[in-house]
TrEMBL record:
Known catalytic reactions: carbamoyl phosphate + L-ornithine = L-citrulline + phosphate + H(+)
Aspartate/ornithine carbamoyltransferase Asp/Orn-binding domain span: 147-293
Xref: InterPro entries: Asp/Orn_carbamoyltranf_P-bd, Asp/Orn_carbamoylTrfase, Asp/Orn_carbamoylTrfase_sf, Asp_carbamoyltransf_Asp/Orn-bd, Orn/put_carbamltrans, OTCase_ArgI
Entry binding sites for L-ornithine: 158, 218, 222-223
Organism whose genome encodes this protein: Halorubrum lipolyticum DSM 21995
Lineage: Archaea, Methanobacteriati, Methanobacteriota, Stenosarchaea group, Halobacteria
Name of the protein in its database record: Ornithine carbamoyltransferase
Top enzyme class: transferase
Top-level lineage group: Archaea
Length: 299
């Protein structure tokens, strides 16, 4: 069943039923139960920021599906040298079958989707990271199951915002603990409420973690925020996911990676059996392959 949406700019561009079906397809593809192909499809991949997982999982995924992915970094195309995004979008749409973009401004990925005559996938903006959410939800299904309670602890950032909405769509109970000045956009909680979630954010990490099955964190200083390093490090004191915070819980730990060990999470936690992070990273490819088949129209 193809998706009703042409683009995947945030997790709630799909319906809960479509999300469920996407995760079913991802699990079946991961298990080798189904092997859909994308023929000669080409995915253009625009990157304004660095990436390991997003680039490699999409590029390898397209190869596995029988298609091709093209890396378009900031120094590679005219976009980085003054060509307007609208023009880039219109031209790319004449060549490729889909565009995946990692951009700073979320408005830019919307412009891309408006002007490119092909599906556009958000590979991370300052506001959202829906492909990460797909992988996170697949990982939760495989481990704790969807009756999980997940505590997001740390920055109210792109990864957290998409996750809160996606978790609500999947019926997962979410708590959110951030410093008051680095909370999520309140609209995120309104979007989660549309799927029946009543998220009540707190500034108390211990309260959020109490009784949680999973503790999820991400870097305190996201790409593009390097000049805020000193003030953010001060604001996040007490929000580190460490053995002390996890003491008295059986919680597993999620992190989208890359991690800054010693800041938002300790080395010993990431190296412990609690960490689900390697499965999360692997699941990026399986989840995105399912998305690519749905959006680009696999056989
Ligand atoms: N989690 C994630 O998107 O990682 P990259 O920045 O390496 O792509
Ligand atoms: N919040 C991080 C996620 C990286 C995948 C960032 O935006 O840098």
């Amino acid at each position: 069943m193809p998706l009703a949406t042409d683009d995947f700019l945030d997790i709630d561009d799909v319906t809960p039923a479509e999300l469920d079906a996407l995760l079913d397809r991802a699990a079946a593809m991961k298990a080798g139960e189904t092997d859909p192909r994308l023929g000669d499809a080409t995915l253009g991949m625009i990157f304004e920021k660095p990436s390991t997982r997003t680039r490699v999982s999409f590029e390898t995924g397209m190869t596995r599906l029988g298609g091709h992915a093209m890396f378009l970094g900031p120094d590679d195309i005219q976009l980085g040298h003054g060509e307007p995004l609208r023009d880039t979008a219109r031209v790319l749409g004449r060549y490729v079958d889909g565009v995946m973009a990692r951009l700073f401004d979320h408005g830019d990925v919307e412009v891309l989707a408006e002007y490119a005559d092909c599906p556009v996938i958000n590979g991370l903006t300052d506001e959202a990271h829906p492909c990460q959410t797909l992988a996170d939800l697949l990982t939760i299904r495989e481990t704790v199951g969807e009756d999980a309670t997940v505590a997001w602890v740390g920055d109210g950032n792109n990864v957290g915002q998409s996750f809160v909405v996606g978790a609500a769509m999947a019926g997962i109970d979410v708590r959110v603990a951030t410093p008051a000045e680095y909370g999520m956009d309140p609209h995120v909680f309104d979007r989660a409420a549309e799927f029946g979630a009543d998220v009540d954010p707190t500034t108390d990490p211990e309260a959020a973690v109490d009784g949680a099955d999973i503790v999820y964190t991400d870097v305190w200083i996201s790409m593009g925020q390097e000049d805020q390093r000193a003030e953010k490090l001060a604001a996040f004191e007490g929000f580190q996911v460490n053995q002390e915070l996890l003491a008295g819980t059986d919680a597993t730990v999620m992190h989208c990676l890359p991690a800054h060990r010693g800041e938002e999470v300790t080395d010993d936690v990431l190296e412990s059996d609690r960490a689900l992070v390697w499965d999360q990273a692997e699941n990026r490819m399986h989840a995105q392959n399912a998305l690519l088949v749905e959006l680009l129209g696999g056989e």
